[in-house]
């Protein structure tokens, strides 16, 4: 069954190493029967032309503008140069470290959804919210969907519990099932991805959860050999 496997490089890799990664991955996928949809999100300085046939390249961030006077940002015009039509919005690190509010995330979503982008929209709770109980967690996750058109056909939701990102501690299969089952009742047909310390050792079990349509992976996907192992282990056996 085809699922979605997305890699967020975050602030890692250069244009040179990204190109080497992509070329290696393309060759690997030419030889392997991997049924999944694959997306790579390198840093903006390492964006490449979207000419690969086995996967697509997306952007980790963009400002809601065609072009203009927004120092340090890139807009739609810069993404067009590379043929990029996939975008991450609402990642917890941008919300937490860079102060992106829900209103700001919703403005990004509105702009790029009107331009037919494939949008990976991220939601997730902190450890303190988790400790307040399931009801508070679910209410918080719903609040992160405010201003987001859930009928947009190219929307994907990535649930990433903040306490599991980069910590090496993934949510348990029971926790993922519980949250994803609830979110599916709200999201319906929208693909729902899990993110948070996904790696080759747990990808197969995570993919067995019926409400998981894919994964958004961080550090375990930054080295090509590790990413290849994730892809191979993702197959049903």
Automatic annotation (TrEMBL):
<dbReference type="Pfam" id="PF00121">
    <property type="entry name" value="TIM"/>
</dbReference>
<feature type="active site" description="Electrophile">
    <location>
        <position position="91"/>
    </location>
</feature>
<protein>
    <recommendedName>
        <fullName>Triosephosphate isomerase</fullName>
        <ecNumber>5.3.1.1</ecNumber>
    </recommendedName>
</protein>
<feature type="binding site">
    <location>
        <position position="166"/>
    </location>
    <ligand>
        <name>substrate</name>
    </ligand>
</feature>
<dbReference type="GO" id="GO:0005829">
    <property type="term" value="C:cytosol"/>
</dbReference>
<dbReference type="GO" id="GO:0006094">
    <property type="term" value="P:gluconeogenesis"/>
</dbReference>
<dbReference type="InterPro" id="IPR013785">
    <property type="entry name" value="Aldolase_TIM"/>
</dbReference>
<dbReference type="GO" id="GO:0019563">
    <property type="term" value="P:glycerol catabolic process"/>
</dbReference>
<comment type="subunit">
    <text>Homodimer.</text>
</comment>
<keyword id="KW-0963">Cytoplasm</keyword>
<dbReference type="InterPro" id="IPR000652">
    <property type="entry name" value="Triosephosphate_isomerase"/>
</dbReference>
<feature type="active site" description="Proton acceptor">
    <location>
        <position position="160"/>
    </location>
</feature>
<keyword id="KW-0413">Isomerase</keyword>
<keyword id="KW-0324">Glycolysis</keyword>
<dbReference type="GO" id="GO:0046166">
    <property type="term" value="P:glyceraldehyde-3-phosphate biosynthetic process"/>
</dbReference>
<feature type="binding site">
    <location>
        <begin position="8"/>
        <end position="10"/>
    </location>
    <ligand>
        <name>substrate</name>
    </ligand>
</feature>
<feature type="binding site">
    <location>
        <position position="197"/>
    </location>
    <ligand>
        <name>substrate</name>
    </ligand>
</feature>
<comment type="function">
    <text>Involved in the gluconeogenesis. Catalyzes stereospecifically the conversion of dihydroxyacetone phosphate (DHAP) to D-glyceraldehyde-3-phosphate (G3P).</text>
</comment>
<comment type="pathway">
    <text>Carbohydrate biosynthesis; gluconeogenesis.</text>
</comment>
<dbReference type="InterPro" id="IPR020861">
    <property type="entry name" value="Triosephosphate_isomerase_AS"/>
</dbReference>
<comment type="pathway">
    <text>Carbohydrate degradation; glycolysis; D-glyceraldehyde 3-phosphate from glycerone phosphate: step 1/1.</text>
</comment>
<dbReference type="InterPro" id="IPR022896">
    <property type="entry name" value="TrioseP_Isoase_bac/euk"/>
</dbReference>
<dbReference type="GO" id="GO:0006096">
    <property type="term" value="P:glycolytic process"/>
</dbReference>
<comment type="similarity">
    <text>Belongs to the triosephosphate isomerase family.</text>
</comment>
<dbReference type="GO" id="GO:0004807">
    <property type="term" value="F:triose-phosphate isomerase activity"/>
</dbReference>
<dbReference type="InterPro" id="IPR035990">
    <property type="entry name" value="TIM_sf"/>
</dbReference>
<keyword id="KW-0312">Gluconeogenesis</keyword>
């Amino acid at each position: 069954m085809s699922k979605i496997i997305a890699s967020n490089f975050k602030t890692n890799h250069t244009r040179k190493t990204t190109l080497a990664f992509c070329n290696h991955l393309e060759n690997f996928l030419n030889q392997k029967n991997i049924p999944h949809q694959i997306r790579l999100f390198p840093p903006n300085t390492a964006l490449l032309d979207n000419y690969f046939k086995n996967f697509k390249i997306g952007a980790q961030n963009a400002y809601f503008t065609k072009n203009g006077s927004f120092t340090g940002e890139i807009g739609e015009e810069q993404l067009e140069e590379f043929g990029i039509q996939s975008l991450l919005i609402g990642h917890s690190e941008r919300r937490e470290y860079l102060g992106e509010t829900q209103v700001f995330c919703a403005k990004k979503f509105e702009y790029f959804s009107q331009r037919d982008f494939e949008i990976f929209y991220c939601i997730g709770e902190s450890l303190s919210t988790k400790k307040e109980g399931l009801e508070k967690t679910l209410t918080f996750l719903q609040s992160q969907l405010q201003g987001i058109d859930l009928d947009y056909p190219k929307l994907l939701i990535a649930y990433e519990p903040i306490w599991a990102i980069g910590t090496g501690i993934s949510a348990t299969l029971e926790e993922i099932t519980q949250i994803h089952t609830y979110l599916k009742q709200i999201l319906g047909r929208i693909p729902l991805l899990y993110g948070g310390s996904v790696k080759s050792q747990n990808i197969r079990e995570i993919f067995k959860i019926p409400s998981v349509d894919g994964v958004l992976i961080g550090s375990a996907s930054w080295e090509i050999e590790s990413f290849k192992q994730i892809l191979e282990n993702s197959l049903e056996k």
